[in-house]
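Forum > Structural Biology > Help requests

Title: Can anyone predict the 3D structure of Glycine betaine transporter periplasmic subunit?

Hi all, first post here. I have the sequence for Glycine betaine transporter periplasmic subunit but no way to get a structure on my laptop. I'd be grateful if someone could post the structure tokens.
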Amino acid sequence: MTRFFQATILAGTVLAGASSGMLVQPAHAEDCGRVTIANMNWASAEVLSWIDQIILEKGYGCDAELVPGDTQPTITSMMEKGEPDVAPEAWINSYRESLDKAVAEGRLFYASESLSDGGDEGWWVPKYFAEAHPEIKSVPDAMQHPELFPAPEDPSVGAVYNCPAGWGCQTITTNLFKANKGKDHGFILVDTGSAAGLDGSIAKAYEREQPWLGYYWAPTSILGKYEMVKLDMGVPHDKAEWDACTSVTDCADPKPNDFAKSEVFTVVTKRFKEAGGPAYDYLTKRSWHNPTVNKLLAWMADNQATGEDGAKYFLKNSPDVWTQWVSPEAAEKIKAAMM
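Reply #1:
Sure, ran it for you. Structure tokens for Glycine betaine transporter periplasmic subunit below:
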């Protein structure tokens, strides 16, 4: 059926209803239209994007599409092009100034704090290593002992495991490595290649009870499965230094710094805020605690589940959590779709 023919039938139906004193609404008047959702490539963000896709589509009639996206390119695209419409789990510390500016100008909006407990970032060592080396309590302590953290390809130097390319934490870890004179102390930065590579390096170390030092964050299934100890960065958080250098790619002279509490928000565009209606209202209520996320991520890891699998498992097994985010009508539609 052509769009013209469809439009003709719809117009005739509306006019017929009007002539009888009753205006007939289109069948999907409550629908929120098309919405694009950034599907970022770490587990908690991926499963949340699928949860949003299913809830928006099944509960609110949206034409919800997942699009690939990492933090930096997604936030940049949203600020410059107004797309995608939703970044479900945006770790915004590295982009706070530019995001706040976009929000002040009405181009983007913080819908909710997606992780109500915030994220926890830092440099970590395995618990068994911390217990065997109580003298290593901080990053400066670790920097004095490259021999305790032999690199996998060259044991004569120490290793600090970095974030995957494209993540904001890669820039931060690189700058903190330089600030703590890692190279001068006999360390190298190890490129893990991907989120799976970073996770695998921790799992491998644990299986062999080997040392490990590098960046990681919570909530994650890895930190739920493998006990890790976060090292003190040796200095307090300096926001001015963070904004001016720590989070800036290729900063010439970074200084030692600590991570702030990681604020993790759902960011949406002006277009979707104005067009989404009840679907946007859902995003303003959709926030969950780290233990809930850790539990779900652990199930996904144990079952080699995809983000879609995890979302469906969560929607089937945790209605006590997600029904608080949606309208009763939407909840019934979503439950029916999950049967």
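The longest strand covers residues 120-126. The beta strands are 34-39, 63-68, 86-91, 108-112, 120-126, 158-161, 187-190, 214-218, 228-230, 264-269.
Shout if anything looks off.
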